[in-house]
Write a structure and sequence with these properties.
By secondary structure, the protein is an all-alpha fold. It contains 16 helices and two strands. The protein has a two-stranded antiparallel sheet with strand order 1-2.
């Protein structure tokens, strides 16, 4: 089936982009809520950061199970469950009275719900709907994670400023329900369900055999297979650093760090939105490059430049004009999730189209473990030292180490046949 001359894969990509955009906007909301919660509820940065850390950790841990679940019950059903959980959990914000309730709503349930519509969607959609232009598609979908800040954060900051933080959850819930309605109406599962082939597939292309394994067994089976190969540990380790230096640190603590230097929440949210705008450009460009350039060298450049930017960030707070924080926001935005397309490319090359998305789920889990770790560590550093300077230094050093490690990743060759039959036999 085609609509005009446009392959339906592009419509599937657009719906996935919108869903991931919404998930990113939901997950970025605690950055706007942190200072109001400190002022209104008198909770420390460490206490609030713990809830965010739980959110990020569960978001990451859901990755491999989400990829397996999509192969079992379908992409659309998985997305709808995730959006529904997010809608219910964020609506509960209006009733939060204790830190435990914050952890349950924004930590546990938002983490689980967003995890069902997280970064593994990019790997699944690109592997399922596209043969050509996979890098570009992955780049576009990856950009949704930071573009969610572009679309939502300034709006969320204004809602909090004018109406308080409690109504914020109802606004987020309504957005999640609206996107869920679009997914229900328009998302399709596979090209074969429409009687077409993936975009760019050869005439003799045949669809891969669908997995019939229990999603939990599928996820752990892929992990058992992957951990025996060094390429998995190198990809997971570098992506751990990616999470620690983006969503975990800047995404959560940038607004409070700006507040420490007398910068308002609305202006700080605008700077994060600028990062989101430039991330859209940087990640799409990175996807295009990953189809043409050795992904290892791309990762080397991205992590190295990110580390240098973090080393200079503490000085940027004291510089007025375009050469301070605005310049940092533009530069860091270009590099925000540029690491994802080459990481997905290397994963699919090494583990194939069937097992690759599930393995990438575990690599994405490592990303979120890095994010969760630095969220808690940075919150503790700010509470005990009164500033984020040590956290900036720690994150910068991790990035420089990751840049060097990236060059040791063996690109390998595309797995000629999926490993899932062996997993099936074990099951």
């Amino acid at each position: 089936m085609r609509r005009g001359r446009i392959h339906y894969g592009w419509f599937a990509m657009a719906l996935a982009f919108l869903t991931m955009l919404t998930a990113a906007g939901i997950r970025s909301t605690p950055g706007v809520l942190m200072r109001p919660l400190e002022a209104d509820m008198h909770w420390s940065a460490a206490t609030i950061s713990f809830a965010v850390a739980v959110n990020i950790a569960l978001f990451g841990l859901m990755g491999p199970f989400t990829a397996a679940l999509m192969q079992s019950i379908g992409v659309r059903t998985t997305m709808l469950i995730g959006l529904g959980v997010c809608a219910a959990a964020t609506a509960a914000t209006a009733f939060i009275q204790t830190p435990t309730e914050l952890v349950i709503s924004w930590g546990i349930f938002v983490g689980l719900g967003a995890g069902l519509i997280g970064s593994v969607v990019a790997a699944t959609i690109s592997a399922r709907w596209f043969v050509k232009q996979r890098g570009l598609v992955t780049g576009v979908l990856s950009a949704a994670n930071a573009t969610g800040q572009l679309v939502f954060l300034p709006f969320f900051a204004n809602v909090v400023s004018h109406h308080g933080w409690r109504p914020m959850g109802l606004v987020v819930s309504a957005i999640a329900l609206f996107v869920g309605a679009l997914v229900l109406l328009f998302m399709r599962e596979t090209p074969a369900s429409l009687g077409i082939k993936p975009y760019g597939a050869s005439p003799d292309w045949t669809p891969p055999v669908a997995s019939t394994i229990n999603p939990i067994l599928r996820a752990f089976g892929a992990l058992r297979m992957a951990v025996r190969r060094p390429v998995f540990w190198l990809l997971a380790g570098t992506f751990f650093v990616c999470g620690a230096s983006t969503a975990g640190f800047i995404g959560t603590h940038f607004i409070p760090a700006c507040g420490d230097h007398g910068i308002s929440e609305t202006k700080a949210a605008g700077l994060l939105a600028t990062m989101g705008a430039f991330d859209l450009v940087g990640t799409v460009l990175s996807g295009w490059l990953s189809d043409r350039v050795d992904p290892r060298w791309l990762l080397f450049a991205y992590y190295g430049l990110r580390g240098l930017a973090l080393l200079l960030l503490p000085y940027a707070f004291g510089i007025d004009g375009m050469f301070g924080l605005p310049l940092f926001a533009m530069f860091y935005g270009l590099d925000w999730l540029a690491t994802l397309p080459p990481t997905v490319r290397l994963t699919l090359n090494a583990f194939g189209d069937v097992d690759g998305p599930v393995v990438f789920g575990w690599i994405a889990a490592s990303h979120q473990m890095g994010a969760a770790s630095i969220v808690a560590i940075a919150g503790f550093i700010r509470t005990t030292q009164g500033s984020y300077d040590t956290a900036f230094m720690l994150s910068a050093v991790l990035c420089i180490v990751a840049a060097v490690v990236a060059l040791t990743i063996n690109r390998g060759k595309r797995t000629p046949a999926p490993l899932s039959p062996s997993l099936s036999s074990r099951a």
